[in-house]
Structures are given as C-alpha cells and as structure tokens.
Amino acid sequence: MPTSEVRTDAAEAARTALVDTRRRQLLNAAARLLGRAGSQSVSMQNVADEAGVSVGLIYRYFANKQELVQAVIEDVLHEFSVRVADPVQDEPDPVRRIAAAFAGYCAVVQELRDAAVLAYQESKTLEPEGRDTVKDLEVESAEPLIAATREAIDAGLIREVDPRVFAYGFLTTAHLWALKHWYFSRFLTHEQYVAEQTALALSAVIRPEHRAAYPDLLGPLA
Fold first, then answer.
1. Best-predicted range by mean pLDDT among 25-34, 62-71, 122-131, 143-152?
2. Fewest CB atoms within 10 A around its CB: which of 71, 93, 156, 161?
3. Backbone angles phi, psi at 214, to 5 degrees
4. Whole-angstrom Cα distance, residue 83 to residue 71?
5. What is the pLDDT of residue 148?
6. Cα distance between residue 86 and residue 101, in whole Å
7. Taking the CA of residue 27 as centre, how many other CA atoms within 13 Å lie in the half-sphere pointing to its CB?
8. Rounded distance between C-alpha atoms, residue 198 and residue 219, angstroms
9. Cα–Cα distance, 109 to 117 (Å, whole number)
C-alpha cells in the first residue's frame, strides 16, 4: 500500500476515534444530567456545560434534545445486546449461560448506571417512532437470556416456566441495581448483588436433581 494511502487510513482512523470519544463524552454527560433533573428541566446548554464543551459542538452530533435523549437510551440498550450476547457464546451449559447473560446485563447497568435509569424515566417522552425503536432494542437485548432459558428447560435442567417471563423478571432485577443503588450499595458490592440475585433466581427454577451441579451459582441455596 502506498505511503499516502497509509497516512490517509491512519488519519481517518484517528478522526473516527475522536468522534467516538466525543460522542461518548456527550452521552455520558447527558445521562448524568438528565438522570438528575429530567429532560423537561434540562437544556442543550446545560448538557454542554456538564460535558465541558460548547453548545455548538453538541449540535454537530445531535439536532435537538429529543434526539440526544433517544441516543442515550439507544446506546445503553445496544450495550446490553452486546454485553449479554458475548459471554454466552462459548458456554455449553444453558444454566451457566443464563447466569452469564445476567452478569453481562448487570455489568452494563453498573457501568452506565445513569443511562440505565434514564432509559426508564425518559422513554415515555420520545416520539412514537423512537419508543418503537427502544422497544425493539429492549426485546433484542433479552433474546440471549430467553434462548438460554428455553434450552435449559428443554434439557430438563430447570422446571418449565415461561422463558419470556423469567428472562424479563431477571433483567428487571438487573435494573434494580441502578434504580435503587442508593439502598443496595449500603450493604452490598455490585459483585455481591449479582451473586445474590443469581442464586435467588436460579434456586427457584433449577430442578432438585441438578442443584448439586451448580454450587458456585446457588451458594448457600444449593
């Protein structure tokens, strides 16, 4: 490859990295501010001040506040899809895939706690098309957990439950860490919270004859 093309590729990669970094900076600032005050009370100038940038820079990335709110919510849901799917790909045991999917979901909630709360608070403020997109992304993020639950049922490892009800209940539990962090963090670390909730959920469904195979997941409930 000619030197000029190498330089062009390197420059383009640098520009892309800068755009991604700046966008992440704006999304994180918006999530913090909107989570504290709500979208009705926050202006684009407020978000710019929170991010430490000019308001003109924000408008280079987002046309208006609703587009910014939509982007924050879609970003956290995209992270859920990626981080839930990745840990389960190479795990042959469906029960352990359930636990891995939940842990991945919880990791995103911990890392993007403000955005996770915002997704709950502000989805209703979006335009109908935006709400439909958010719903589709949420369903997509739950699919690895639903699939693992179905496989665990088919394998006779857990009792027959509705996989969708079980999965959404489990994922709602993940969100509780963000929604009630002020309470749980008084007496549990994030890792302890994940372990406790995993044990509680799985102990309710794993068949008695298979409980001995999962002492690390069930803990004292094994």
1. 143-152
2. 156
3. -130, 50
4. 18
5. 93
6. 8
7. 20
8. 9
9. 9
For 211, the token pair is 């409980």
Radius of gyration over every alpha carbon of the chain, rounded to an integer in angstroms: 21
Q: What is the fold of 1-62?
A: Arc Repressor Mutant, subunit A (1.10.10)
Give the integer Cα–Cα distance in Å for 52 and 190.
30
Domain 64-215 has what CATH class?
mainly alpha
- Domain positions in the chain are 1-62, 64-215
Q: What digits encode the pLDDT tens for the residues 48-85?
A: 888 888 888 889 888 888 888 888 888 888 877 777 76
Instruction: Classify burial at 131, counting beta carbons within 10 Å of its beta carbon; exposed 0-12, middle 13-18, buried 19 or more.
Output: middle
Which of 137, 80, 135, 140 lies closest to 105, judged by CA? 80
Kind and range of the H or E run holding 209:
none
With beta carbons less than 8 A apart as the criterion, state whether 49 and 29 touch: no
